Each structure stands twice: as structure tokens, then as C-alpha cells.
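Morning!

This is the sequence you dropped in the shared folder:
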Amino acid sequence: MLFNTVIFGPIKSRRLGVSLGINLLPQNGKICSFDCIYCECGLNADGREDTQLPTREQVRTALEEKLMAYKQADGEPIDTFTFAGNGEPTLHPAFKEIVLDTQKLRNRYYPDAKISVLTNAWQLDKPAVLDGLRQVDNAILKLDSAIPDTLLKMNRPVSSDFSMETLIEQLASFRGECIVQTMFLRGAGVDNTTPTEIEAWLKALKRIQPSLVQLYSINRKVPIDGIEHVSEEELKQIAAQVKKIGLNTLVTP
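The structure's back. C-alpha cells below.
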């Protein structure tokens, strides 16, 4: 499912409440530095030819128009402005500047709302991206596995330079001011719920020391056949192990 507008929602998010989405990617295509087997937007090579990114001004204008209309309609208060959409939001060349624009509009219309970014964390070597993420309330960073072979099969990074060690090092550079989000699933040659997987993942979490660890599983159609949902009960069992190492955790069934 693609988001065919720059601003979408608000929607009721399983993790973020009433969420107003901001899509910095094409409206009829997908651009991402990962090609996850479970992505609700489909795979990178699904034949979509739209590669046009909205400009900074287009995003700012669309967001303000949406907020003005939503406020006038007396809509339910927005809990979070969420950068998500059709791929990896930090790939936008004006990501940091758009975050700052969003802060100003948030402060004007819904000052109690948070600003969140869902990111695969593979652009953190770029100073502007890192600075932009440090400006938001919730930097939600993906870590689906701490075993390289599993992550390569599950997230399928586009870059041949991908390194698990670099990814974990970049996550740890947030010094605890981040949220780690992990998708658990089985199928398509992947199972990140095994004892070996959990042990490696917990070791990485100890190093990263995030403020919160979010656990979830698939609840929408995915582009790869044979992928299985992990039950809420099993997610809670994994969460209990996270709590044992002293970290806050949230299970979203």
C-alpha cells in the first residue's frame, strides 16, 4: 500500500496514537535504502517509476493546509507528527530543514504533539540526518536482528557497504535518546525469534541502551509469501527478557 499524498491521516497508530503522517518520498513510488520482506509499501522493484520527491516548500505548504483544515473541523487532537510514508524519510535531501519546519507548525497548531521519525537508521553517518533526528521527540530506529545473515535476508539493505557493526555503533551514538523498534516474524527463510537470535539482539540492546524497545509483528498484507505473524504471548515473553536487562519495552500485538 502506497501513501499517495504528502500528508496522510490522521490515523490511529498501534504505537503512536493519533498520528498525522508526513511522506517525504514519491506519491506513486517507493524509495528506500532497505528492501524489507515485510514492507507494507511493497518491494523496491515493484515496477513503480515515480521517483519525484516533494520539495521542502511543498511539504510545508501541504502540512499547514492540512493543519488549518483539521483544526477548523475540530478534529481529534493529534498525538504525533510521524515521518513515514513510501520508503526511508531520511533519504530526502532537505530532511533536517523539513523537521525544523514541522516543529514550527506543530508549535503553532498542536504544541502538545510529538514529532516522530520511523527510520532504518542507515543514514546516520550523514551529519544533517543525525542533526535532524536529534531535533525530534521520537527517533524510532529499526533493529530487526543483530545477526548479519538474518538482517540481510529480512531487511535486504540496498548498499553493498552495509555493516551490522556500523549500524549498531550508529544506534549507540544516540546515547539512549532513541527508541529501537523490532519486527518479529517467521517464514521466507527467516526466523528472528530463536534463542540465538534473541541472545544476539539483547546483547546489541545492552550496548545501545535505548529509552524504549518496541516489539511488534505483521498485521497487514506483506509482499513476500509464507511470512508468519508472531503471537502477542510470544512477544510478551521476549519483552520480559528485555525488562530483565533493565530496559523499558512496549509490545504492540
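Headline: Residues 122 and 167 are 7 Å apart (CA to CA).

More detail when I'm at my desk.
O.
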